[in-house]
């Protein structure tokens, strides 16, 4: 009995150690393959004929390249080879300025963003100039017009005025040729072309119809004379709100000219022309939707005065210094957007000082004065009608 138990234990241990030894053998060894001669030279062939077959590796596809958008960069400029500088070949390798500029010109990204700071400054400057002259860009001006009431006169592009007038001039001087009183009816016209509600070109003209002045120092003879005023101005207008009752301030500058025309055969009178740069300022203060008071002032800081000969070639002197000031007040009555009536009273004061002696004897005193001074005042009353659209 004991021998039988010992035999069973021996067989169990033998079986256990045989399995442990087999578990430690490399599974890729030929021991796991089909039996054959140990150390046979055809062991490689036995691998192909055995029950284990090597799975073929599937061919892998090459990864597709990822396309990337190239960022706008400056065109590459080839640097000259320092070793070839001595041979004179560097000039051939280095592109000239025309090629470099053409490369930049053909590159849209570089053309628009070569200097963003300069582009921004130019844009800001152009916008500032446009806002100062036109009152804003086209979009902002269009939005401004859309907010106005349909019967607002600011929507008018053209305005034309005509006014029967009366002019009186008083010129005082120690020299007979520049001393006179004159007056008579006249007609005043003006046309305004509004490119925007804030910018216009104004053209004005006035002429007397039957004015006269004294033509002889010793008699009461009178002679016909024509007084003419011409002006061309740029007007810049500013409103303080969108309401029709909003006050407005208008600044203008341009050319102003005055002419006194007498007959060419006059012996004791000469013709006169005065012109210069005119600066003006006008304030309109509405008291209601259809009524407004208006006051304005003008100045010609440096006026050119020329005395034109007739039969007489008398001159008051040389190098005159002259200026002119003008003040006016009036009322506007707006009947509707297109029609308006107004009245206006204005006075213009001028001062001219000559150097040296006059060129002709004064027919009233028989003397030749020196340092002639002339002070002229012109008062004009207008009652007119204005049409706009």
Please write the CATH class name of the domain at 142-388: Mainly Beta
Q: CATH homologous superfamily of the domain at 142-388 - what is it?
A: OPCA outer membrane adhesin/invasin
Strand order of the largest sheet: 1-2-3-5-6-7-8-10-11-12
Gross morphology is elongated
Question: Which key terms come to mind for this protein?
Answer:
7 helices, Lipocalin, 389 residues, 10-stranded antiparallel β-barrel, 20% helix, alpha+beta
Mind explaining what this structure looks like?
The protein is of the alpha+beta class and 389 residues long. It has a domain at 142-388: Lipocalin (Beta Barrel), CATH 2.40.128.100. It is 20% helix and 42% strand. The chain is built from seven helices and twelve strands. The chain has helices spanning 2-23, 43-49, 90-93, 97-105, 108-113, 116-134, 138-147; strands at residues 158-173, 180-196, 199-208, 211-214, 222-239, 248-262, 271-288, 291-300, 303-308, 318-334, 339-355, 373-388. A ten-stranded antiparallel beta barrel has the order 1-2-3-5-6-7-8-10-11-12. A hairpin with a 4-residue loop joins strand 10 (318-334) and strand 11.
Layout of helices and strands, plus pairs?
Elements: H1 2-23, H2 43-49, H3 90-93, H4 97-105, H5 108-113, H6 116-134, H7 138-147, E1 158-173, E2 180-196, E3 199-208, E4 211-214, E5 222-239, E6 248-262, E7 271-288, E8 291-300, E9 303-308, E10 318-334, E11 339-355, E12 373-388
Antiparallel strand pairs: 1-2, 1-12, 2-3, 3-5, 4-5, 5-6, 6-7, 7-8, 7-9, 8-10, 10-11, 11-12
Briefly summarize what is shown:
The protein has seven helices and twelve strands.
